[in-house]
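Lecture notes, unit on protein representations.

Consider one protein chain, 137 amino acids long.
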Amino acid sequence: MEWKADKNTVIIRSADQVETYKKLYQGADLVAARKIAVDLPSNDENTLNNTEEGVYYQYIFPEGEALRYYYVVGNLYTYYEIKDDVKHLVWEGVEEDSRKKMKEKGKRPPEDKTQYYFYKNVWIIVSHMVKWGPRSQ
């Protein structure tokens, strides 16, 4: 149990999740922390939708971080932040015309200098491609 006086909030973690949250917030394994972040549930739902054909998924994290990231499906960008054990949808945007124009909702996050991504492209059920590494600007 943790008391957040500034928010007048109590955070209660079940005993079986204590180690998971330790890895997320204090662990030395950034990959494990990012996997936990991605798997956290969110009560927020997108109000915008992907408008591209084909399916691909991408997670983009700022260098050295796990508590905020973009989840990209086609041309739909969703930005999440994790605060007080809860994943919040902060911003969403649908890319139109190579990111020069976007339909968006929420507070757009500032661009990070260096980002790392995990990219999965699925064209048909039996064929897929996976890439990872620094994201070129």
